[in-house]
Fold:
Amino acid sequence: MESMGFIAGLIAFGLTVGGVAICLFRRLVNGPKSLPVSVDWISELSPARYRPMERLLSGEDYRFLASQPGFNRKMLRRVRSQRRKIFRVYLGCLRDEFSQVAAALRLIMTYSVEDRPDLAGILYKQQVLFAFGILAVEARLALHACGLGTVDVRSLVEAMEDIRLELRQMIPAENPAA
Structure:
């Protein structure tokens, strides 16, 4: 009987994760309501702004803080919690920018004279990988809240850079004489 409860729990968990994945993917695919697409906007997009995320939840800083006189577990929990909040702000910005870039690419493909099924495939693949990457980061954030592990966002930042480069290639450089 206990195994039936365990199996039911696993099924419920799987359905929940699946539902969240579908919602997240739909949100990424639908994109934002408005697009600030310009050569300047694309040039300003930089994965470097997300580099602090790579260190925010690093265990190295926590070990240093723990070695300081007067530092206690309560302080450590508070610092970890504050850093997760900051991390989530960065993650939200990364997700929004990724959605904007993907929506801009879809818009350009829609109005392009040349059909680009290869680009559509790349875009779809990147969106799926990004959605699953976000899900994995969210799961690691939950574990981090329990005091376990760190969160690696390098693959998400790389996905953002890849899709930004695709968009940059689609937009011709501004003509300085114009």
